[in-house]
Amino acid sequence: SIILGGGAGTRLFPLTKRRAKPAVPIGGAYRLIDVPMSNCINSGINKVYILTQYNSASLNRHLARAYNSNGVFGDGFVEVLICFLLYPFMNQNLVTHLRQLFEINIFQALAATQTPGETGKRWFQGTADAVRQFHWLFEDARSKEIEDVLILSGDHLYRMDYMDFVQDHRQSGADISISCIPIDDRRASDFGLMKIDEKGRVISFSEKPKGDDLKAMAVDTTILGLSKEEAEKKPYIASMGVY
């Protein structure tokens, strides 16, 4: 799986003033990132890449302490991939060398981290761009036997057996599958919304629409198995950030 380390997390400010949203503490010693990590463990997924960028120092530190050689992942691995903006001269060979260093002594190297006010073309521009920038790495020798790649958000709070989702994806024959939930008017504009046809294929998608654009994404959610009464309360189909 690939877990995305999140962006600025402005809606949780000031909790995210000095940390990425996945590093926000929950339940005492835990962080939001531990939710998808726990889901991976309980789903039998033991090969995990984590892409970090924005205010990532606290997140990297937590991951190093929690998942560095603790045996939870058996013959799998947890590897953090960092978006380097401050080193434009870096090439793939140098990044591979740094990865080898991390595997021996994880996170003991000083990594570049994006902070408020910084911009640059080399920063991840979104979910797809983050995966695109490290696409070459997922073709690594030890990834040759991986049939499917699960892409997750590192800052969502939920419980899910990912293998059920993966099995449905395989049976559908789709190139990409998106996990979704019905959502009400109050929260709809906080999500990416979609319209689907009777076969479950996505025919329209809008990222966090508002106003008339939001109203245009309303659908009959009985297609998801809701009763007519429930569908009237939740007329939108929202992406869970699980692909």
Automatic annotation (TrEMBL):
One of the protein's GO biological processes: glycogen biosynthetic process
Enzyme superclass (EC): transferase
MF terms (GO), sorted A to Z: ATP binding; glucose-1-phosphate adenylyltransferase activity
Keyword Transferase: yes
Pathway in which the depicted protein is active: Glycan biosynthesis; starch biosynthesis
Domain Nucleotidyl transferase: 2-243
UniProtKB keywords: Allosteric enzyme, ATP-binding, Nucleotide-binding, Nucleotidyltransferase, Starch biosynthesis, Transferase
Gene3D superfamilies recorded: Spore Coat Polysaccharide Biosynthesis Protein SpsA, Chain A
Domain of life: Eukaryota
Protein family (similarity comment): Belongs to the bacterial/plant glucose-1-phosphate adenylyltransferase family.
Subunit structure, as described in the record: Heterotetramer.
Protein name: glucose-1-phosphate adenylyltransferase
UniProt source species: Brassica campestris
Taxonomic placement: Eukaryota, Viridiplantae, Streptophyta, Embryophyta, Tracheophyta
